[in-house]
Amino acid sequence: MSVKFEKETIKNAPIPGGKQEDTAHKIGEALTGGKSQTGYLAAYLKQLQENPMRTKMLTSGTLAGLQEVLASWIAKDRSKHGHYFSSRVPKMAAYGAFVSAPLGHVLIKVLQWLFAGRTSLKAKILQILVSNLVVAPIQNTVYLASMAIIAGARTFHQIRATIRAGFMPVMKVSWITSPIALAFAQKFLPEQTWVPFFNIVAFVIGTYINAHTKKKRLAALRRKYDDGRRDDYPRPSY
Question: What does the alpha-carbon distance between residue 75 and residue 209 come to, in Å, rounded to a whole number?
Fold first, then answer.
């Protein structure tokens, strides 16, 4: 009797943290689909296979626009109307959808084609080197040229000056993050998810760089404003 009673008590006893675990499990199933493969991630991967270019363009455009809003919020860089949604947001979204996504799609496809079926350690290291010495410079050059145009550059000399000033700092960031991201993709991700994964990595890094640049620009404007006030109201001499 006692053994049976103990078993039933254990069976019917509430599990500590059961509601939290159940909620987490439901959220996980909603995202991944669980065994049914009907979650958001599964639906996204299906669209990525059926309509790769359109899905990548929508993803990249959304992330680029969101990056501008988030960077403005972090840097407290408001527009003249007092909010963070400036004219740069749709321009950044257009860049992400119509420039970054197609370029990334083509470059990653070429990179995957060059190393298709090659899974040795030597091949993986060589793929990382090609990515950092060929793919990254192309993407960063196009990125800096696009940012110069969005910022108002209209001549070739202005665009070239922007690229020359920003190329090495951006490349240094790429050389640090790209090998880690690519090694992670090689190990854990199917090839059709590489471009969205790199878009997310670029979103995080780009938000940081964008926010840092905005903070520096705002600080420079404040210094210029303070210097102007001192010139207008010189300190009296005694």
Answer: 11
